[in-house]
Specification:
- It is globular and about 45 Å long.
- Helix 1 crosses helix 2, helix 1 runs parallel beside helix 5 and helix 3 runs antiparallel to helix 4.
- The longest helix has 22 residues.
- Strand 7 and strand 8 form a beta hairpin.
- It has a five-stranded antiparallel sheet with strand order 8-7-9-14-15. Strands 1, 2, 4 and 5 form a four-stranded antiparallel sheet that branches. The protein has a three-stranded antiparallel sheet with strand order 3-12-11, with no helix packed on it.
- The protein is built from five helices and 15 strands.
- About 30% of the residues lie in helices and about 25% in strands.
- The protein has a single domain, classed as Creatinase/methionine aminopeptidase superfamily (Creatine Amidinohydrolase, Alpha-Beta Complex), CATH 3.90.230.
- It has about 270 residues and is an alpha+beta fold.
- The N and C termini lie far apart (about 35 Å).
- The chain binds magnesium ion (MG) (2 copies).
- It catalyses: Release of N-terminal amino acids, preferentially methionine, from peptides and arylamides.
- Monomer.
- Its cofactor is Co(2+); Zn(2+); Mn(2+); Fe(2+).
Length: about 270
């Protein structure tokens, strides 16, 4: 069942999403060669708690940490550990914060030092596919329209679209209806209505779309060992149109990146 949110609830969800956005912005300055994902996890947990929220993933389905940390060939759900990041790695950081009874949940794949042009392109295309999907999240469209748009764009670059893991509705529960696959057929699936809130999250593999799971019961990695990227935003339908509740602007601010990619999806100015 899809749980539609009131404008007041959407503002509460924006608060949760912005705590995640700020956490990722804080981490952006900390991601570098030599740093461990366990250290970053601790920083994030303290930061989230200092902002009056609790880490959304900690204990969720018994997940042991606050961040999902998935380097290189790991797709999602990697567990933080004591292995230092090295120059040329990528690290997908998925973060959740729970405040006022609502979840924020979004993700960004960071470069560790200098990465190869091939990897840079994978990140760029995955992030672009996220916005291409978000554009389709509007009144009158359906779940399949978002998935179709993401899949078409991604596969045109020769990349693999992961099938087993999908985006989702978001609210008082981390995972609500509907499921939001990154593949699909136009005009198929549940219809979007005003007040829906979802997490759209393309998971894109440089090679095969096939994945495996580690024996830890969590970590998902590519079957061919090639890198994978993950970008996720929280989006509401406001005035019939997609409205971003999360933002990468804190990350860009920390990294000195100029970007207007989100501007068309913010009906309200984000005050950094
Ligand atoms: Mg997430
Ligand atoms: Mg999610």
């Amino acid at each position: 069942m899809i749980i539609v949110k009131t404008p007041e609830e959407i503002e509460l969800m924006r608060e949760s999403a912005l705590i995640v956005s700020k956490t990722l912005g804080m981490l952006a300055s900390e991601v570098k060669p030599g740093v461990t994902t366990l250290y970053l996890d601790k920083l994030a947990e303290d930061f989230i708690r200092d902002h009056g929220a609790v880490p959304g993933f900690l204990g969720l389905y018994d997940f042991p940490n606050s961040l999902c940390m998935s380097p290189n060939a790991q797709v999602v759900h990697g567990i933080p550990n004591a292995t230092p990041l090295v120059e040329g790695d990528i690290i997908s950081i998925d973060c959740g914060a729970f405040k006022n009874n609502y979840h924020g949940d979004h993700a960004y794949t960071f470069e560790v030092g200098e990465v190869t042009p091939e990897v840079k392109k994978l990140l760029e295309v995955t992030k672009q596919s996220l916005y291409i999907g978000i554009k389709e999240f509007k009144v009158g469209n359906r779940v399949g329209d978002v998935g179709y748009a993401i899949q078409k764009f991604t596969e045109a670059h020769g990349y693999g679209v992961v099938r087993e893991l999908v985006g989702h509705g978001l609210g008082q529960k981390m995972h609500e209806d509907p499921e939001m696959p990154n593949y699909g057929r136009r005009g198929r699936g549940k219809k979007f209505v005003e007040g829906m809130v979802v997490a759209i999250e393309p998971m894109t593999n440089m090679g095969t779309k096939r994945i495996n799971q580690l024996k830890d019961g969590w970590t998902i990695l590519t079957a061919d060992g090639k890198p994978s990227a993950h970008f996720e935003h929280d989006v509401a339908i406001v005035n019939g149109k997609p409205e971003l509740l999360s933002t990468f602007k804190y990350i860009y601010d920390a990294l000195g990146i100029e970007s207007d990619e989100e501007d068309e999806f913010h009906q309200k100015e984000i005050q950094l």
